[in-house]
User: Which sequence fits this backbone?
């Protein structure tokens, strides 16, 4: 499965990209994550349906310092 996400809220300068990178490595998910100039975080997730859906649910909250 491949999913392209735009995550917005307080998601920059709070460790969101690093947090997501660690989660993706743990779940064997490939792709990329980057900051956008408008304050969003853009993500491409590639992996099994179950793991990608699981990490998307986790992204709805993000790390404790974020406000998604």
Assistant:
């Amino acid at each position: 499965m491949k999913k392209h996400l735009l995550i917005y809220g307080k998601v920059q300068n709070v460790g969101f990209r690093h947090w997501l990178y660690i989660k993706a490595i743990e779940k064997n998910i490939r792709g990329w994550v980057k900051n956008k100039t408008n304050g969003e975080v853009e993500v491409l997730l590639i992996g099994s349906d179950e793991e990608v859906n699981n990490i998307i649910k986790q992204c709805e909250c993000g790390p404790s310092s974020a406000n998604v």
User: Anything to note?
Assistant: The chain has a mean pLDDT of 95.
